[in-house]
Amino acid sequence: MVNTKHPWKAWLYLSPAIVLLLIFTLWPIINTVVMAFQEGYSIQQASKGKEFEFGLDNFAYVIEYRGFLTCLKNTILLCVLTVPISTMLALLIAVCLNSIKPLQKFLQTIFFLPYVTNSIAIGMVFAAMFNVVGTVSAKEPIIQTWGIINNIIMFFGGEPVNWINAGSEYWANIFVLTVYIVWNALPFKILVLLGGLQSVNKQYYDAAKIDSTPKWRVFTKITVPLLSPMIAYVVITGFIGGFKEYSSIVGIFGEKMGPPGAMGKPLNTMVGYIYDSISRQQGRASAAALILFGIIFVVTMINLYVSKKKTHY
Q1: Is residue 89 part of a domain?
Q2: Torsions phi, psi of 219, nearest 5?
Q3: Is residue 203 packed enough to be buried (19+ CB in 10 Å), middle (13-18) or exposed (0-12)?
Q4: How many Å apart are CA 208 and CA 219, to the nearest integer?
């Protein structure tokens, strides 16, 4: 511990960051909780001096909203699909990168590029890759181009798929979103797992090599257990990020949150519902945000409980 005769200096140096945290983090959180319990709260009406009663009407409205289950289903489905896939792929890629010495730094940079690229821009690129230019919903479709992905499928003898255009099916849309979210989530997870691999004591691998242990057994009995704290971390942060998914859907499908011509917003998520409600009913948006916080909190606690039993420190 560092002893000092002038602790006020430390507080002075920290004061700009503390002030910013109080203004832009703590106060919005408190304000969100207060607005969530003010029935029918809206900034427009509050600015006119209207007072609101405290109650649970905002929460009841959000839960009874006919699109709530759709938003919740899409959010949970994307989490369940993307987090395990991205974690397993990141672990395999990290192990492969750790065994490649000459081009390791270069490949790390290549794999990390998506993490520092704007997610909306990446979504637009993915939309262009899966897009079919032409009329695909007519009885006699006129196709100008099937898109990059469909061209690859047809090159290997497969049938083209209507991924994101008008008339596309829900599961085709989910597949595109899953591919994009997994690809976008890989860089951070690879970086964390690769850092953990490089800190593992090499004596374990030397001992396994002397015993002629098969590589798959080395992976399952040495690599995975020693990386379990990092794996638990990327799984927990993956679920937290997955429940906040929104920008990927906007990047691919736009603000309509679904293919052209679809009724409502078939691919909307909890965060999408919150953004939709902010401009009209801030109280309901705050209630939805607290509900989402509660879901994330419960899932995180479950992950921590499970990882506590499976993690080796």
Answers
A1: yes
A2: -65, -45
A3: exposed
A4: 11
What 3-state DSSP class applies to 134? strand
The whole-number average pLDDT for the span 253-270 is: 84
- Looking at the domain assignment, is residue 14 inside a domain? no
| Number of domain units in the chain | 1
In a domain, 51, yes or no: no
Comparison of pLDDT for 202 and 181, the residue scoring more: 181
Instruction: Report the CATH number at residue 118.
Output: 1.10.3720.10
Residue 301, token pair as written in the block:
């606690």
Q: Write down the pLDDT at residue 293.
A: 92
Task: Please name which of 6, 164, 174, 188 lies closest in space to residue 79, comparing C-alpha atoms.
Answer: 174
> pLDDT band at 22, cuts 50/70/90?
very high
pLDDT for the residue 223: 83
| 278 closest CA partner among 21, 44, 24 | 44
Q: Which residues of 14-47 are buried (b: 16+ CB within 10 A; e: fewer)?
A: eeeeeeeeeeeeeeeeeebeebbbbbbbbeeeee
* Listed residue (45, 40, 65, 66) closest to 55, CA to CA: 40
Within-domain flag for 183? yes
Position 96 scores a pLDDT of: 86
